[in-house]
């Protein structure tokens, strides 16, 4: 009788503890897809012929003390998410070595990647300016190729992926950037939105079919506050700017993309009721420090920390890392890093906003570690 009672106590105790541990550490792994906002080294590993400068200081100077292939001075949103859930930083897929432990996840994101395949841009005559051909579809193929190394049977995969977090993006920003940087007008950008959103939704759907049940799909940033857009579309006409110095039309465009993405995600939730599909509002999380930089410890948010001069310290002939450019003394006082990408300090605020709220819908699962 005593043995039976003891066994019951042990069963319930360990069952309870297992549940507690599961709640405290909801994810065993993270798999990430996207572009330069979350690439942790794939672009560099792929050759990086066009932009090798991200493989040198001052990139990476703040946290890692050396360049890692991240397009920032330090950590990215994906790094803060990994920290918050007690997981190691994601190794880039293209740098994996034989026998490497990948149980905690892998990063497939590539700087310059697009939601649409490269053929789309080649047909438009703008293929030459693309950083990479490793689109979202190619990243998905990498994941499918790696999947047998993660789990074998359907039962094993279902059990493993039930405790994994999948991030689909941010992706799509470059689809618009490439068109804008060759002089495309905003009407042309709007025309691409349905195609870009469809590409993101198809990829998200494909991952669910592969076994993903917890997915995060971030929206686009307020590109009207980006130093590169502010430089390219600079005008004496004050009417095109909002009260904070951002380009009204381009921020409205970002909001339009995000709205269409949200509508498509809502449909996807009905298609896959068993999956938990989270929209991460990068736009809202970032707009705060563009509107109130001082509140977040920034001396300014529109001017790049690292660059070669100009009103917003973005100069295409002397970009960050090139001869003629230099980095500011303290990147933590800037939101914008190199004119296109943000600083570690800015990414920290975005990560905190989406993990702790209120910039995610539905909310993230509670993380065991808080972002300072």
Automatic annotation (TrEMBL):
The keyword Transcription regulation does not apply. Keywords: Glycoprotein, Hydrolase, Signal. Signal peptide: none annotated. It holds the Pfam family Lipase_GDSL. InterPro entries: GDSL, SGNH_hydro_sf, SGNH_plant_lipase-like. It comes from the Eukaryota. CDD domains: SGNH_plant_lipase_like (cd01837). The keyword Transcription regulation does not apply. Belongs to the 'GDSL' lipolytic enzyme family. This is Putative sinapine esterase. It comes from Lupinus albus (White lupine).
């Amino acid at each position: 009788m005593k043995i039976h009672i003891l066994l019951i106590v042990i069963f319930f105790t360990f069952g309870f503890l297992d549940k507690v541990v599961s709640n405290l550490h909801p994810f065993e792994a993270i798999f990430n897809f996207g572009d330069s906002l979350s690439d942790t080294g794939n672009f560099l590993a792929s050759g990086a012929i066009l932009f090798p400068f991200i493989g040198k200081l001052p990139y990476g100077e703040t946290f890692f003390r050396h360049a890692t292939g991240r397009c920032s001075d330090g950590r990215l949103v994906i790094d803060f998410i990994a920290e918050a859930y007690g997981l190691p930083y994601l190794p880039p897929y293209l740098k994996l070595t034989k026998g490497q432990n990948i149980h905690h996840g892998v990063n497939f994101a590539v700087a310059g990647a697009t939601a649409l395949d490269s053929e789309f841009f080649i047909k438009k005559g703008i293929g030459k300016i693309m950083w990479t051909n490793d689109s979202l579809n190619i990243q998905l193929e990498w994941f499918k190729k790696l999947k047998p190394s993660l789990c074998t049977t359907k039962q094993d995969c279902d059990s493993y992926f039930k405790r994994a977090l999948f991030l689909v993006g941010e992706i799509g920003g470059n689809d618009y950037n490439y068109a804008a940087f060759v002089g495309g007008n905003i009407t042309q950008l709007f025309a691409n939105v349905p195609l870009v959103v469809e590409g993101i939704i198809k990829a998200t759907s494909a991952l669910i079919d592969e076994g993903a049940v917890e997915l995060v799909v971030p929206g686009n940033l307020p590109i009207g506050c980006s130093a590169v857009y502010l430089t390219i579309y600079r005008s004496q006409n004050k009417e095109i700017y909002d009260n904070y110095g951002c380009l009204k039309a381009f921020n409205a465009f970002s909001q339009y993309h995000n709205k269409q993405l949200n509508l498509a995600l809502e449909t996807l939730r009905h298609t896959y009721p068993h999956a938990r599909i989270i929209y991460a509002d990068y736009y809202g999380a970032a707009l705060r420090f563009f509107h109130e930089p001082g509140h977040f410890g920034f001396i300014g948010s529109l001017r790049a920390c690292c660059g070669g001069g100009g009103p917003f310290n973005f100069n295409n002939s002397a970009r960050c890392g090139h001869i003629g450019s230099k980095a500011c003394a303290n990147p933590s006082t800037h939101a914008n890093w190199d004119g296109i990408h943000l600083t570690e300090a800015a990414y920290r605020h975005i990560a905190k906003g989406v993990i702790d709220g209120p910039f995610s819908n539905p909310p993230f699962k509670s993380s065991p570690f808080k972002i300072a």
